[in-house]
Write a structure and sequence with these properties.
With 406 residues, the protein is an alpha/beta fold. The chain folds into 3 domains: 66 residues, Arc Repressor Mutant, subunit A (Orthogonal Bundle), CATH 1.10.10.10; 105 residues, ATPase, nucleotide binding domain (Nucleotidyltransferase, domain 5, 2-Layer Sandwich); 180 residues, Nucleotidyltransferase, domain 5 (2-Layer Sandwich). 39% of the residues lie in helices and 20% in strands. It contains 14 helices and 15 strands. The strands form 4 sheets. The protein has a 5-stranded mixed sheet, with helices on both faces. A hairpin with a 4-residue loop joins β8 and β9. It is globular, with a radius of gyration of 23 Å. The protein starts with 17 loop residues before the first helix and ends in a 10-residue tail after the last helix. The chain binds zinc ion. Zinc ion binds next to loops.
């Protein structure tokens, strides 16, 4: 999926295919809403006639709507245009190591309902659980007729050609289908994506004004794993077989703890929430024991962070150690991708003021140029549910994507 860059699109002309002009116009409305027809014509460098005709089409198919007028200095007050998002709904799903989150929301990611259940790792049972839950959720909110699809983010690599999950170490899923099975079980189209890539897409597509995200950036998720969505020149980097960006599984110590992927000493085995909680409990992270340890102790990452905030020395020590390893992971990204900025999502951002300086210090020590050392780190607040916004973007973004040009 290509994003239309409304800052630098080749000037639209009468010979530009109508479909492309339509998408340019739709993206301009999304980025600058509320916007008038006159302003669109000025930004697209085309005549009012063409804009009027394209706007009519988009009004008829329901992609945009006309809203309140604004105060114009003089003359007739123009009707302003908005993208219609509020009554187009998505079921957004975030599958994680322990819990699965299911949110009913609109195309802008505004939540209508949020439910969770303990993650069922057997794929068939997982699909069956969602197959029962989603129709009930939609019925309870009289939303079945407005639902445009299901967005599902997974902690692992996804082949976009087949929709198959290639490898999700946290779930033990290898080359399995969930997308088509869930579509069959619910009757809705299902879009599936690697969680950090989906978070990057949400930055590109669901920003307050689209285009807030730069052309080159990386979105790092620190959850029960450490994942990265890499965007270069406005496009997600997937690699030849959909396994690019797996910085979480670069080893920092070959004799380090065993990772969920089976290797030793991966950056993820030091930085994931599971690793932080294990460290806080005085245990080395171990894939075999992680699930039990969480159950036995009843301690969550949120509690470790809350204790850290209230000054608990053990919690702070565990979190600061995580931050040092995160700094190493982020410096690898700085040195290999050289992004304009790095977004960081995950519970760890709830103690950002304390942990960010530690990450910065490690990056500054390891970066190869002074500008790379200054790469901005931007926390993505947990309150906005970044991964569920990512799932939402999977369904909402194709509406705005550039048409395929043969
Ligand atoms: Zn690993």
């Amino acid at each position: 999926m290509r994003k239309i860059n409304t800052r630098s699109f080749v000037r639209a002309t009468r010979s530009t295919p109508r479909e492309i002009n339509r998408q340019i116009l739709l993206n301009l409305v999304r980025e600058h809403q509320p916007i008038s027809r006159a302003d669109i014509a000025r930004r697209m460098h085309v005549g009012r006639g063409m804009v009027t005709s394209l706007v009519s089409e988009l009004l008829v198919d329901g992609s945009i709507y006309e809203g309140a007028t604004i105060d114009a200095p003089r003359g007739r007050k123009p009707m302003m245009l908005y993208v219609r998002t509020h009554d187009r709904l998505v079921v957004a799903i975030d599958v994680r190591f322990t819990l699965t989150y299911v949110m009913l929301c609109d195309f802008n990611g505004n939540s209508i309902a949020l439910e969770t259940f303990e993650t069922v790792v057997d794929p068939a049972a997982f699909v069956a659980t969602l197959g029962r839950m989603i129709p009930k959720l939609l019925k309870a909110h009289r939303a079945a007729g407005k639902c445009n699809g299901i967005g599902l983010v997974v902690p692992g690599m996804v082949d976009q050609r087949t929709g198959r999950v290639l490898n999700a170490p946290q779930l033990g899923w290898r080359d399995i289908d969930v997308r088509d099975a869930l579509a069959d079980a619910t009757g809705f189209p299902v879009h599936i994506e690697n969680a950090p890539i989906a978070c990057a897409l949400a930055k590109m597509w669901l920003g307050q004004r689209g285009g807030d995200a730069p052309r080159d950036f990386v979105y790092v998720t620190v959850s029960d794993g450490f994942g990265a969505g890499v965007v270069v020149n406005g496009e997600v980097v997937r690699g030849h077989d959909s396994s690019a960006g797996e910085f979480g599984h670069v080893a920092v110590d070959p004799r380090g703890p065993v990772c969920l992927c089976g290797s030793r000493g991966c950056i993820e085995a030091y930085t994931s929430n599971l690793a932080t909680v294990s460290r806080y409990l005085g245990r080395e992270f171990s894939p075999a024991a992680a699930r039990e340890l969480l159950h036995e102790s009843g301690i969550t990452i949120d509690q470790v962070i809350a204790r850290g905030r209230s000054g608990d020395a053990a919690a702070l020590a565990a979190l600061e150690e995580t931050a040092r390893y995160l700094g190493r992971g982020l410096s690898m990204i700085v040195n290999t991708i050289n992004p304009e900025q790095i977004f960081v999502g995950g519970e760890i951002t709830d103690l950002w003021d304390r942990l960010a300086p530690i990450m910065r210090e490690v990056i500054e020590a390891r970066a190869l140029t002074s500008r790379a050392a200054a790469t901005p780190l931007i926390p993505d607040s947990t309150g906005t549910y970044p991964r569920l916004r990512g799932a939402t973007a999977l369904v909402a973004a194709p509406l705005f994507a550039a048409p395929r040009v043969a």
